[in-house]
Amino acid sequence: GAGVSQSPSNKVTEKGKDVELRCDPISGHTALYWYRQSLGQGLEFLIYFQGNSAPDKSGLPSDRFSAERTGGSVSTLTIQRTQQEDSAVYLCASSSDESGRWETQYFGPGTRLLVL
Amino acid sequence: AQKVTQAQTEISVVEKEDVTLDCVYETRDTTYYLFWYKQPPSGELVFLIRRNSFDEQNEISGRYSWNFQKSTSSFNFTITASQVVDSAVYFCALSEASDYKLSFGAGTTVTVRA
Questions:
Q1: Residues B56-110: tens digit of each pLDDT
Q2: Is the dihedral of CA A68, A71, A73, A74 positive or negative?
Q3: In terms of Cα–Cα distance, which of A81, A105, A27 is closest to B103?
C-alpha cells in the first residue's frame, strides 16, 4: 500500500516568509507525528496528533510553529516568519496506534527546507 | 538528558565484513519499546525492528541481528557479511510508557566499501 507522503520535497524560502509543509499519512493511521532533523540537533520530536487533536505539542520550538490536522488524515505544519535556524528536514510519521502507544511509526521522505 | 546514546559516529568496513552498531538507552519506565531505523542516502527513515522491554530474545532477520540486554541497557545491531547497499545512517530509538514520541540517538553512519 501507499506509504506516508510529504510535499513539497524541497522548499527554498527567504527569511521572514511563511511556509506550509504537508503530510499525507498511511490510510487508516490515526496517529501522526512531526519531527525535525537538523545537523546540530539530530532528530527532534515536534508534535503528535491523535485524530484531529494534538495532545502533545511539547516539541514545537516557538510560537512561529503551528500544525493542524483535518479529517483525521492530512496534516499541515506551518512556520511563520521563517528564520535561518529553521532550515532542516521536516519528517512526518504515522502509526495505527489502535492499542495505544508504541505502535511502529512509519516515516515519509521528508521536506527539505532551506531558509535564505 | 540523552535517552539514547550511539557512541559510534561513523563506521567504515569492506564488503563482506560484519559490523556491529552499539545503542545504549536510559529510562525509568519498566515498559518501553526500542527501535532501529535505517536512513539511506535518499533520506527516508526505514523501519527495521521493534522490541518491547519484556522480550529479551535476540532476533535475526536475514543478515541483520539484534542483541537486547536489559542488564546493560543495550540494544545492539549487527549486519553480517555487509554489502554496499547497507551504506546508510542507522538510528536507534526509544519509546517510553510515559510518552508518545520517539527519542532518537545521534545515528551511526555506516559506509561499506566494495
A1: 888 888 999 999 999 999 999 999 999 999 999 999 999 987 777 899 999 999 9
A2: negative
A3: A105
B47 touches A: beta carbon within 8 Å: yes
Residue of B32, B33, B100 lying closest to A48 (CB–CB): B100
Q: Which residues contact B62 (CB under 8 A, 6 or more apart)?
A: none
Q: pLDDT, tens digit, for every residue of A63-115? A: 999 999 998 899 999 999 999 999 999 999 999 876 556 689 999 999 999 99
Shortest CA gap B91–chain A (Å): 9
Instruction: Check CB contact of B45 with chain A, cutoff 8 Å.
Output: yes
Q: Which residue has the cell 526505514?
A: B46
Of B45, B95, B104, the CB nearest to A101: B95
- Inspect the interface and report whether the beta carbons of A108 and B107 lie closer than 8 Å: no
- What angle is formed at CA A106 by the lines to CA B84 and CA B82, rounded to 5 degrees? 15
Cα gap B76→B15, rounded to integer Å: 20
Nearest by CB: A104 against B43, B47, B106: B47
Q: Which of A26, A30, A58, A104 to mutate to test the interface with B (most CBs of B within 10 A)?
A: A104
Taking residues A15-34, report their average pLDDT: 95
C-alpha cell at A19: 511556509
Contacts of A100 (CB under 8 A, 6+ apart): none
